[in-house]
Each structure stands twice: as structure tokens, then as C-alpha cells.
Write a structure and sequence with these properties.
Elements lengths: L6 H4 L1 H33 L11 E6 L3 E5 L2 E5 L2 E5 L22 H10 L7 H9 L8 H19 L8 E13 L2 E13 L4 E9 L4 H13 L8 E4 L3 H10 L4 E4 L1 H9 L7 H12 L4 H15 L4 H8 L2 H4 L10 H4 L3 H10 L12 H16 L11 H6 L3 E2 L2 E2 H8 L1
Parallel strand pairs: 5-8, 8-9
Antiparallel strand pairs: 1-4, 2-3, 5-6, 6-7, 10-11
């Protein structure tokens, strides 16, 4: 009897048809998952204006882009939203984050799948869809062994010797997650910029509600492991624990409050009808070319809103000097120093918004997997703009409105 029944499976044309079919199903599945995310986002932000219209609404789609998978290129198109209240709330997919353009790297995809709640029993099917038949055989036991390796990598990261490195700038933030055996846990995250302009994750560690004790223990550990020279500037939000600890461990380090966090805090103390105007005026402060212009914009905001909304203006005025510290550093560095964006932009893809998911990892496992994703993201980082001026910052050169004082003197001569 002929074995013709097996021929189609070895026929290239047949395999192409099957690949097209699998690709179409993958594209449909991705689209449905993203729409489910969108509906959850719109359900969370369901506030309305004075006429009863929703403030956060759908606003078309982003340009189509290609994701390289094991079955070839898959076209995806993410939906967009518009916030008519002017609060900057926009939809970002966690299933398909902006950075995910290729699915070739197991080291990035495995922890990402695990933290998204994919069971180890489902890894084989998920990875086969992403990479093709070449990855079949990744059993739950194999995944468990990989997790052990990740935890060892994380332990080594926590003990890294930083001698020979000097961090010029620091960015600090607390990331809150949910874990299996506890309520929300805070993960303390530190990123440093060295003298060559390269950014490094310095710490991804569990803390207790961003307390002074937790931050102090972390900073002392870094100092003992080689970071003995105080950074020139630290950037963070208003969490008092970090700043109190920084003043004890690195008292010479100047402080810069994050403008994104501060803007959100101030707007939260204002009625919604004045928030767009207030937000625009706040932007005029930190986007000013000179400190003098920023000071005038600062005074203007306090004068306009101070009588009616003292809580908002007091919140802004309390950090006035620390909000404007960046003017004493090179202007090419300002975009890096005014916010904690180096942390926020990275953790937008790995922040683990577990309030919306039912992940089942422990704190220890979560930290190890977050470290894997952080290291994967760090490989794609570029040096900061104007990194050559870091030598002047280290040498103590004075900058006036972002310009080297020596250049100003030469121009005036």
C-alpha cells in the first residue's frame, strides 16, 4: 500500500499553508488578548466630564508593526486611547510591550512568560508558538531548573563588587508588586550612571514600604561593595525614606525630585477642571531654558493657585530647590535628570502590574525573574547624551543654566 498519506507533510507547499494558518491564528490570538487588556484599561478609567462623557476614550490604532516569531513575521496593531481630561492616561499593552520586536531570546521571553502568569505546564505550547518546533521538550522540570539558575544569577548580582566604578548620577524608585504569600511588596530599584555614561542596575531588592531603614541598608551595601564616592546627583520621587537614607550614607549628594511624580502629586490636589491649565503651567517651569525663567514660572503658578488650592501649591513649593537642581548640571543631561524615566521606561514592560493579574510566584522568585528582565533591558541601553561632560561634573566644574561657567567667562572676555 502506498504511503501517500505522509507525502503532504513533507511537501514544502503544504508546510507553507500550515504556517500561514498558524500565523493567522497567532495574529488573531494576539489581537483578542490586546483588546481584552484595552477593555480592562477603559474599565479602570471610567470617569466622565461635566456632560457625562467619558474622559478616556479609544482613539484609533498605532501604525502596524511586525513581530518576528517562530512562524515568521506576525503583523500587529495596537489600539490607542485619548485622555480628554489632559492627565496623560494612555493605554500600554503588557502582553505586547513596545520593546518586544523579536521573540528570539529565550533569556528574555521565559521570565516574561512566567511573570505574566503562564503555568510551567503550558510553557512547551507557548514557546513552540513563539520559536517553532526547535524548543519542544522544555518540561516543567526544565523550567524549574532554569528558575534555580536565575536565582543564582540574582544572588551574584546582589553581591557584585563595584570597586573601580564611580556613579555620577543615581535614579531611585520603589516598585510595588503582589506575591503569592503576601500583600503588596515594595521592590527598591536603583540605577546608576558611571563616568563613561553607561547606566547600570545597582539594586533590585525587597524593601519594607520604602522605609529609611530599607534604603539605608541597600545604600550601605553598595558603599561597602565599592561605591565609596558619593554620586553628584540623585533623582527620585518624594518618598522620604530614600532621601533620609541618602543624607546619612552620601550626605554630599545633591537631590533632584522627579517632575513626573511631582506633577501627579500636585494635580491630585486640584479639581479636574483646572488640572489641564495647572499641568501646562508646571511644564513651563521645568521646561524653561534658564533657572530665572523657571523661578518666574514657579512664582506665577503659586500666585494663581495659592489662594484657592494651598495644599497643591504647598506640595510644589516644599521641594522648590530640589526640583530645580538640574540647572546646575550640563544642559545635555537635563532630559535624563528631571525624571526617574530610566526606571519607569524600563519597568513599563516588567513592572508586574499584578493587581490586574493572578500571578503565583513568590517574592524570591519574582525578584530573580525581574532581575533577568532588567539585565535583558540593560543590554539595549545607550550611553546618556553628552556623556563626555561627565568628566567635568566629576571634576566639580560649575554649570550655570546648564552651561560650563568657563565658556561663559570666555564669551564675556
Amino acid at each position: 500500500m502506498s504511503n501517500d498519506t505522509t507525502v503532504p507533510f513533507h511537501n514544502p507547499a503544504f508546510r507553507d499553508e500550515m504556517t500561514d494558518l498558524i500565523r493567522a491564528h497567532a495574529q488573531t490570538a494576539i489581537h483578542q488578548a490586546i483588546l481584552a487588556e484595552l477593555e480592562a484599561f477603559l474599565g479602570e478609567h471610567d470617569d466622565t466630564d461635566s456632560q457625562g462623557r467619558r474622559n478616556v476614550v479609544r482613539n484609533g490604532y498605532q501604525p502596524e508593526r511586525e513581530i518576528l516569531t517562530g512562524v515568521g513575521q506576525v503583523s500587529v496593531q495596537l489600539p490607542k486611547t485619548r485622555d480628554r481630561a489632559g492627565l496623560g492616561r494612555c493605554f500600554r499593552s503588557l502582553i505586547l510591550p513596545p520593546y518586544l520586536k523579536k521573540t528570539r531570546r529565550l533569556e528574555a521571553v521565559l521570565p516574561w512568560l512566567y511573570l505574566k502568569g503562564v503555568s510551567t505546564n503550558d510553557f512547551d505550547e507557548a514557546l513552540t508558538a513563539l520559536f517553532g518546533e526547535s524548543v519542544r521538550g522544555l518540561s516543567p522540570a526544565t523550567i524549574s531548573r532554569l528558575k534555580s539558575v536565575w536565582q543564582e544569577d540574582y544572588k551574584a548580582f546582589c553581591q557584585r563588587d563595584w570597586r573601580g566604578h564611580e556613579m555620577v548620577y543615581l535614579w531611585a524608585d520603589g516598585i510595588y508588586i503582589n506575591a503569592r504569600e503576601a500583600d503588596r511588596r515594595c521592590v527598591l530599584v536603583l540605577i546608576g550612571c558611571d563616568a563613561h555614561g553607561k547606566k547600570h542596575f545597582l539594586a533590585i531588592d525587597e524593601g519594607f514600604r520604602e522605609s529609611t531603614e530599607s534604603w539605608k541598608e541597600l545604600l550601605l551595601s553598595l558603599r561597602d561593595r565599592g561605591l565609596s564616592k558619593p554620586p553628584k546627583l540623585a533623582v527620585g520621587d518624594g518618598a522620604m525614606g530614600f532621601w533620609a537614607a541618602l543624607s546619612e550614607v552620601y550626605p554630599e549628594t545633591r537631590q533632584q525630585r522627579c517632575w513626573v511624580h511631582k506633577t501627579a502629586n500636585v494635580l491630585d490636589k486640584l479639581p479636574k477642571r483646572v488640572q489641564p491649565q495647572a499641568k501646562s503651567m508646571i511644564h513651563q517651569i521645568w521646561q524653561a531654558d534658564t533657572r530665572e525663567s523657571a523661578e518666574k514660572a514657579f512664582d506665577r503658578f503659586l500666585a494663581i493657585f495659592g489662594d484657592k488650592y494651598p495644599k497643591a501649591t504647598d506640595n510644589l513649593a516644599s521641594d522648590r530647590d530640589r526640583l530645580l537642581a538640574f540647572y546646575d548640571f550640563p544642559a545635555t543631561h537635563w532630559q535624563h535628570l528631571r525624571t526617574t524615566n530610566p526606571i519607569e521606561s524600563t519597568f513599563a514592560t516588567i513592572r508586574l502590574r499584578t493587581a490586574k493579574t493572578r500571578n503565583c510566584y513568590s517574592v524570591d522568585t519574582g525578584l530573580a525573574l525581574m532581575h533577568q528582565l532588567a539585565m535583558s533591558a540593560q543590554k539595549r541601553w545607550r550611553r546618556i547624551r553628552g556623556f563626555r561632560q561627565l568628566a567635568d561634573v566629576i571634576a566639580g566644574v560649575k554649570f550655570i543654566d546648564g552651561i560650563d561657567e568657563r565658556k561663559i567667562s570666555r564669551a564675556a572676555a
